[in-house]
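Worked Example 4.2. Consider the chain below.
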Amino acid sequence: MKPHIDRRHFIGTAASVVAGSLILPVGDVFGALRLVRPDEYPETPHFWYRKPLNKPYVDSQNKNMAFAFTDSEIMLSDDNSHTWSYKKTFADAKNITFSHIFNDGTVLFATREKLYRCTKKLKSYREIIVKDTDGKAYLPHKSKNPDNPGWYFHTLSGINSWIINGKEMLVWGNYCNVEGGASPVNIYYTSDYGKTVKIAYSFGQNPYFTDNGSPSGGAGGTLLGNSNNPAICRHIHAVAYNPAEDAFYACTGDGNRPAGWECHWLRGKYDSIKDKWDWKIIITESLNTRYKAGSISFVDGQMYWISDANGPKPWDRGIFCCHPTDIGNPNAHTKLFDPKYESATMIIEDGVILATHIAVASPFTLGIMISTDLGKTWFEYDIKDFGPFSPSRIHKKNSEGWFRFDLRTGWIDRAEYMFLKPKK
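Applying the procedure from the previous section yields the following structure tokens:
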């Protein structure tokens, strides 16, 4: 078998597997297509995959727990999405843009501009008012168009929390100014299971993404963000933690604007005693370089990231790794794989690197890249079973070994979701 499998070869193989099997309906969230033997699903040589019915929409998972919603209800499972023992009416559920399940079963979730905390088993929920860096209430702006209040909390990362000094710390940045209205760009954090959520860093006021009432924001409206910060960006792509340095990294996008370039890398240190952050922008680069990055991961002190460089050619794309101290020196980087097309989503767990293609930026219908040996060899697949999707927001494997990720239409529109399980 070649390390890089031809797309057409796999499509034919996958079609013969499914066509030669009896399909039976099942009643759990894993969907209506299950092969004769319950341990079989559509597969490639390197993973199984399945796409549920989409009702409810499973938005996040942690170990055996999963959080989901319908148009009017939030739900929690404690058996890997098979059944939903805990439910709660929530009128604005269709506008949920973010959720996180803490290790203790507490859930933090957000609509477009409001944040909520659920107690264990969804017994109750309440709105959480974010605190600014000065300790004052950080309230969403009054939007010009109530249908576009902004994506204050939506993120593209599936891994947003880490155990640091014995505590689970949730740190994430908002991917915004694409739809849902203009929003300021922030990094948020909580170290008490969502009881208090604070601003860790706030970007400056971007004149190209003001609140003018449009879905993505634009010029000529209300300026949003930190008026004292000259650094601007469109949104945050990823925030990650490196335990070897006890430091956080973040990367942003998107463009090269006359008022300032938007592709930054930041490094942050958190003082838990003083509850203070120290963030520094360590790199600002053009959108056509490897520094226009998506997901960031750390394994054994090494930094891994995926680049969705675009704009003017040449495009410096790929999946890269280096020591964190060498991030500013491209000559010290190792390119592990070249996807050829702009790609921005990746996760690493148990030596498996799982990355995805963007449907509208590549010839892939639903493109998957996988390495089971931490980047030494790579395999690429195009799953044609479900139509064109851009996978995003990959969550760590649940207790049954399945990754969960969004299936977006176009660049960013939420549509469906899917599970993928690497083969050992």
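The longest helix spans residues 7-19. The chain has one helix and 32 strands. Compare this with Example 4.1 before moving on.
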